Every structure is written in C-alpha cells, then in structure tokens.
Amino acid sequence: MTAKKSLTIFDHVLVPEHRVLSKEETEELLKKYNIKPSQLPQIKTSDPAVQALDAKPGDIIEIKRKSPTAGVYYYYRIVVED
Questions:
Q1: How far apart (Å, rounded) are the C-alpha atoms in residues 38 and 79?
Q2: How far apart (Å, rounded) are the C-alpha atoms in residues 63 and 19?
Q3: Does the N-terminal or the C-terminal CB of the chain have fewer CB atoms within 10 Å?
C-alpha cells in the first residue's frame, strides 16, 4: 500500500517562500526602516499562505521572492482580519 503525499500551497512552483517573523525580528524590521506596522502592505487571514502558516492578525509575514534582475528580495506584509 502506498501512502499519499500531503501537498501544501508552498509546494507549488509559483508560490514564493513565506514565513512568520518572530517578535524580535519584527522589532528589528520596524526599527531598520523606521516604520509602524500600519505602514506595511496587508495580507488577509483568508489568504491560503497565511492559513498554512497559522498566522494571526498582527503577525508580519516575510515573503522571499526571486527576480531575474534583483536576484532574491524580501517583501513584508502584516496579517489583518478579513
């Protein structure tokens, strides 16, 4: 008998890597860019990536994107309620 492999949204080639920042990383990010959490782009709790990470409103998500010109760059979003 073969076991079925459980796939996640992150297994798809077009979905970039996501992760929830720790409290310390969040503080460093906000201090580095001299911003408030409300100044970050938003991502809703209904987003499949947010649900897969079990992120809560107020968490900051780091998205690692690949670019043919910039190489790898990071994008940050704050989780908000729908």
A1: 10
A2: 7
A3: N
Under CATH, what is the fold of the domain 15-80? Eukaryotic RPB6 RNA polymerase subunit (3.90.940)
CA neighbor of 66 nearest in space, from 2, 32, 4, 16: 16
DSSP assignment string, 12-54: STTSPEEEEPPHHHHHHHHHHHT--GGGSPEEETTSHHHHHHT
pLDDT at 21: 98
Residue 79 has a pLDDT of: 98
Q: Which residues of the chain have pLDDT under 50?
A: none
Q: Which amino acid is at 56?
A: K
- Pairing, β 71-80 against β 42-44: parallel
**Cβ atoms within 10 A of the Cβ of 26, count?**
18
